[in-house]
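DM from R.C. (forwarded with permission)

"hey, sorry to bug you on a friday — could you get me a structure for this? deadline for the figure draft is monday and I only need the backbone to look sensible"
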Amino acid sequence: MGNGAPGEGPGERWPRLGSDEAGKGDYFGPLVVAAVAVAGPPEAEALRSAGVTDSKRLGDARCRELSVWIKKSFPHEVVEISPRRYNELYDQMGNLNRILAWAHARAVENLLGSIEREWAGLSPEIVVVVDQFAPVAVLERALFARARQVRVIQHPRAEAAPEVAAASVLARARFLESLARLGEKWGIKFPKGAAHVLPVARELYAREGEEALRETAKWHFRTTEQLLVEVGQRPCRTAGSSGNSSKRGKPAG
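My reply, with the result:
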Protein backbone atom coordinates (compact mmCIF):
# COMPACT_ATOMS: atom_id res chain seq x y z
CA MET A 1 0.00 0.00 0.00
CA GLY A 2 1.19 3.51 -0.73
CA ASN A 3 0.33 6.94 0.63
CA GLY A 4 1.68 9.10 -2.18
CA ALA A 5 -0.07 11.83 -4.09
CA PRO A 6 -2.92 10.55 -6.22
CA GLY A 7 -2.05 12.36 -9.43
CA GLU A 8 -0.21 10.83 -12.34
CA GLY A 9 3.53 11.12 -12.66
CA PRO A 10 6.50 9.65 -14.53
CA GLY A 11 6.36 5.89 -14.54
CA GLU A 12 2.76 5.64 -13.37
CA ARG A 13 1.06 2.48 -14.53
CA TRP A 14 -2.24 2.26 -16.35
CA PRO A 15 -5.06 1.50 -16.19
CA ARG A 16 -5.87 3.08 -12.86
CA LEU A 17 -8.97 2.32 -10.82
CA GLY A 18 -10.50 4.84 -8.44
CA SER A 19 -13.25 4.33 -5.91
CA ASP A 20 -15.26 6.67 -3.73
CA GLU A 21 -18.45 6.64 -1.68
CA ALA A 22 -21.56 8.70 -1.03
CA GLY A 23 -24.16 8.62 1.71
CA LYS A 24 -21.95 7.74 4.66
CA GLY A 25 -22.77 11.01 6.43
CA ASP A 26 -26.44 11.08 5.42
CA TYR A 27 -29.01 9.81 7.91
CA PHE A 28 -31.50 8.84 5.23
CA GLY A 29 -30.71 6.84 2.11
CA PRO A 30 -28.20 4.17 1.12
CA LEU A 31 -24.46 3.93 1.28
CA VAL A 32 -23.10 3.87 -2.27
CA VAL A 33 -19.59 2.99 -3.44
CA ALA A 34 -18.54 3.42 -7.06
CA ALA A 35 -15.37 2.41 -8.88
CA VAL A 36 -14.18 3.70 -12.28
CA ALA A 37 -11.37 2.46 -14.52
CA VAL A 38 -9.33 4.90 -16.60
CA ALA A 39 -7.22 3.37 -19.37
CA GLY A 40 -4.52 6.03 -19.68
CA PRO A 41 -3.56 9.72 -19.63
CA PRO A 42 -5.80 10.70 -22.61
CA GLU A 43 -8.86 9.32 -20.85
CA ALA A 44 -7.84 11.04 -17.62
CA GLU A 45 -7.56 14.33 -19.50
CA ALA A 46 -11.00 13.77 -21.04
CA LEU A 47 -12.46 13.57 -17.53
CA ARG A 48 -10.78 16.81 -16.54
CA SER A 49 -11.89 18.56 -19.71
CA ALA A 50 -15.49 17.51 -19.10
CA GLY A 51 -15.37 19.15 -15.68
CA VAL A 52 -15.38 15.95 -13.64
CA THR A 53 -14.28 16.81 -10.12
CA ASP A 54 -15.13 15.88 -6.55
CA SER A 55 -18.93 15.59 -6.42
CA LYS A 56 -19.04 17.83 -3.34
CA ARG A 57 -18.03 20.69 -5.63
CA LEU A 58 -20.84 20.00 -8.10
CA GLY A 59 -24.53 20.77 -7.94
CA ASP A 60 -26.94 17.84 -7.95
CA ALA A 61 -28.10 18.46 -11.52
CA ARG A 62 -24.55 18.66 -12.87
CA CYS A 63 -23.61 15.54 -10.95
CA ARG A 64 -26.46 13.61 -12.56
CA GLU A 65 -25.55 14.93 -16.01
CA LEU A 66 -21.89 13.96 -15.73
CA SER A 67 -22.77 10.53 -14.36
CA VAL A 68 -24.64 9.68 -17.55
CA TRP A 69 -21.58 10.50 -19.67
CA ILE A 70 -19.17 8.68 -17.34
CA LYS A 71 -21.27 5.51 -17.39
CA LYS A 72 -21.32 5.56 -21.19
CA SER A 73 -17.61 6.29 -21.52
CA PHE A 74 -15.76 4.38 -18.79
CA PRO A 75 -15.86 0.90 -17.27
CA HIS A 76 -17.46 1.23 -13.85
CA GLU A 77 -19.08 -0.61 -10.99
CA VAL A 78 -21.57 0.68 -8.43
CA VAL A 79 -22.36 -1.04 -5.14
CA GLU A 80 -25.45 0.24 -3.38
CA ILE A 81 -26.20 -0.81 0.19
CA SER A 82 -29.81 -0.12 1.11
CA PRO A 83 -30.53 1.29 4.57
CA ARG A 84 -31.99 -2.06 5.63
CA ARG A 85 -28.88 -3.94 4.50
CA TYR A 86 -26.60 -1.24 5.91
CA ASN A 87 -28.20 -1.65 9.33
CA GLU A 88 -27.73 -5.42 9.14
CA LEU A 89 -24.06 -5.00 8.21
CA TYR A 90 -23.55 -2.47 10.99
CA ASP A 91 -25.00 -4.93 13.49
CA GLN A 92 -22.59 -7.58 12.19
CA MET A 93 -19.47 -5.43 11.84
CA GLY A 94 -20.09 -2.76 14.48
CA ASN A 95 -18.06 -0.17 12.59
CA LEU A 96 -18.67 2.06 9.57
CA ASN A 97 -15.10 1.81 8.33
CA ARG A 98 -15.38 -1.96 8.07
CA ILE A 99 -18.51 -1.58 5.96
CA LEU A 100 -16.69 0.95 3.76
CA ALA A 101 -13.68 -1.33 3.29
CA TRP A 102 -15.95 -4.24 2.38
CA ALA A 103 -17.96 -2.15 -0.11
CA HIS A 104 -14.87 -0.62 -1.75
CA ALA A 105 -13.32 -4.06 -2.08
CA ARG A 106 -16.45 -5.45 -3.69
CA ALA A 107 -16.76 -2.59 -6.19
CA VAL A 108 -13.09 -2.63 -7.17
CA GLU A 109 -12.89 -6.42 -7.38
CA ASN A 110 -15.96 -6.57 -9.63
CA LEU A 111 -14.59 -3.81 -11.86
CA LEU A 112 -11.20 -5.47 -12.05
CA GLY A 113 -12.86 -8.67 -13.23
CA SER A 114 -14.70 -6.72 -15.92
CA ILE A 115 -11.67 -4.96 -17.38
CA GLU A 116 -9.62 -8.14 -17.29
CA ARG A 117 -12.17 -9.61 -19.69
CA GLU A 118 -12.55 -6.53 -21.88
CA TRP A 119 -9.07 -5.00 -21.99
CA ALA A 120 -6.21 -7.09 -23.38
CA GLY A 121 -2.60 -6.58 -22.37
CA LEU A 122 -3.14 -5.15 -18.92
CA SER A 123 -0.12 -4.18 -16.89
CA PRO A 124 0.86 -6.87 -14.37
CA GLU A 125 0.38 -4.22 -11.68
CA ILE A 126 -2.99 -2.56 -11.17
CA VAL A 127 -3.09 0.79 -9.37
CA VAL A 128 -6.13 1.44 -7.19
CA VAL A 129 -6.61 4.91 -5.70
CA VAL A 130 -8.90 5.24 -2.69
CA ASP A 131 -9.73 7.86 -0.09
CA GLN A 132 -8.06 7.57 3.29
CA PHE A 133 -11.20 6.26 4.99
CA ALA A 134 -9.66 3.35 6.93
CA PRO A 135 -6.84 0.79 6.82
CA VAL A 136 -7.10 -0.96 3.48
CA ALA A 137 -6.14 -4.51 4.51
CA VAL A 138 -9.60 -5.79 3.57
CA LEU A 139 -9.38 -4.16 0.15
CA GLU A 140 -5.90 -5.49 -0.50
CA ARG A 141 -6.79 -9.04 0.54
CA ALA A 142 -9.73 -9.08 -1.86
CA LEU A 143 -7.65 -7.79 -4.76
CA PHE A 144 -4.57 -9.94 -4.21
CA ALA A 145 -6.91 -12.92 -4.51
CA ARG A 146 -7.17 -12.09 -8.22
CA ALA A 147 -3.53 -13.19 -8.66
CA ARG A 148 -2.44 -9.72 -9.76
CA GLN A 149 -0.03 -7.36 -8.12
CA VAL A 150 -2.18 -4.54 -6.78
CA ARG A 151 -0.81 -1.24 -5.57
CA VAL A 152 -3.31 0.61 -3.42
CA ILE A 153 -2.69 4.34 -3.11
CA GLN A 154 -4.54 5.71 -0.11
CA HIS A 155 -4.76 9.49 0.11
CA PRO A 156 -6.88 11.97 2.10
CA ARG A 157 -7.58 14.02 -1.05
CA ALA A 158 -7.91 11.17 -3.50
CA GLU A 159 -10.70 13.02 -5.38
CA ALA A 160 -7.91 15.06 -7.01
CA ALA A 161 -7.25 11.99 -9.16
CA PRO A 162 -9.63 11.94 -12.15
CA GLU A 163 -10.50 8.26 -11.67
CA VAL A 164 -11.59 8.92 -8.08
CA ALA A 165 -13.44 12.10 -9.04
CA ALA A 166 -15.38 10.09 -11.62
CA ALA A 167 -16.23 7.47 -8.99
CA SER A 168 -17.31 10.24 -6.65
CA VAL A 169 -19.75 11.56 -9.26
CA LEU A 170 -21.22 8.12 -9.95
CA ALA A 171 -21.67 7.37 -6.26
CA ARG A 172 -23.32 10.71 -5.55
CA ALA A 173 -25.65 10.48 -8.53
CA ARG A 174 -26.81 7.01 -7.50
CA PHE A 175 -27.31 8.18 -3.91
CA LEU A 176 -29.48 11.09 -5.06
CA GLU A 177 -31.50 8.80 -7.32
CA SER A 178 -32.09 6.28 -4.56
CA LEU A 179 -32.95 8.94 -1.97
CA ALA A 180 -35.59 10.34 -4.33
CA ARG A 181 -36.95 6.86 -4.95
CA LEU A 182 -37.27 6.27 -1.20
CA GLY A 183 -39.15 9.53 -0.91
CA GLU A 184 -41.61 8.47 -3.58
CA LYS A 185 -42.15 5.11 -1.89
CA TRP A 186 -42.86 6.59 1.53
CA GLY A 187 -44.54 9.80 0.40
CA ILE A 188 -42.06 12.08 2.11
CA LYS A 189 -39.13 14.25 1.04
CA PHE A 190 -36.02 12.93 2.75
CA PRO A 191 -33.36 15.58 3.45
CA LYS A 192 -29.70 15.07 2.69
CA GLY A 193 -27.10 15.16 5.42
CA ALA A 194 -27.65 14.65 9.13
CA ALA A 195 -28.06 18.12 10.61
CA HIS A 196 -31.79 18.74 10.16
CA VAL A 197 -33.33 15.30 9.87
CA LEU A 198 -35.06 14.81 13.22
CA PRO A 199 -38.38 16.45 12.20
CA VAL A 200 -38.67 14.15 9.18
CA ALA A 201 -37.67 11.11 11.24
CA ARG A 202 -40.30 12.09 13.80
CA GLU A 203 -42.98 12.43 11.13
CA LEU A 204 -42.11 9.10 9.51
CA TYR A 205 -42.03 7.28 12.83
CA ALA A 206 -45.39 8.69 13.92
CA ARG A 207 -46.98 7.73 10.62
CA GLU A 208 -45.34 4.39 9.79
CA GLY A 209 -43.53 3.15 12.90
CA GLU A 210 -40.04 1.85 13.65
CA GLU A 211 -39.73 -0.45 10.64
CA ALA A 212 -40.03 2.52 8.29
CA LEU A 213 -36.94 4.04 9.86
CA ARG A 214 -35.04 0.79 9.51
CA GLU A 215 -35.96 0.78 5.82
CA THR A 216 -34.93 4.38 5.16
CA ALA A 217 -32.32 5.50 7.71
CA LYS A 218 -28.96 4.52 9.16
CA TRP A 219 -30.08 3.27 12.54
CA HIS A 220 -26.87 3.89 14.52
CA PHE A 221 -26.90 7.66 13.98
CA ARG A 222 -27.63 9.70 17.09
CA THR A 223 -30.87 10.94 15.49
CA THR A 224 -32.47 7.54 16.06
CA GLU A 225 -31.68 7.58 19.75
CA GLN A 226 -32.94 11.15 20.08
CA LEU A 227 -36.21 10.07 18.52
CA LEU A 228 -36.58 6.96 20.64
CA VAL A 229 -35.92 8.98 23.78
CA GLU A 230 -38.75 11.31 22.77
CA VAL A 231 -41.22 8.44 22.48
CA GLY A 232 -39.99 6.76 25.65
CA GLN A 233 -38.40 3.68 24.10
CA ARG A 234 -34.82 4.25 25.21
CA PRO A 235 -33.21 5.93 28.26
CA CYS A 236 -31.45 9.25 27.79
CA ARG A 237 -27.78 9.22 26.84
CA THR A 238 -25.13 9.98 29.42
CA ALA A 239 -24.06 13.58 29.85
CA GLY A 240 -21.42 14.79 27.44
CA SER A 241 -22.43 12.61 24.50
CA SER A 242 -22.47 14.39 21.16
CA GLY A 243 -22.31 13.91 17.42
CA ASN A 244 -24.35 11.79 15.02
CA SER A 245 -23.44 8.51 16.62
CA SER A 246 -25.05 5.99 18.88
CA LYS A 247 -23.11 3.99 21.46
CA ARG A 248 -21.36 2.11 18.65
CA GLY A 249 -19.60 5.06 17.14
CA LYS A 250 -19.79 8.13 15.00
CA PRO A 251 -20.24 7.90 11.23
CA ALA A 252 -17.22 9.00 9.27
CA GLY A 253 -17.36 12.16 7.22
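R.C.: lifesaver. The first strand starts at residue 16 and ends at 22.
me: no worries. DSSP finds nine helices and five strands in the chain.
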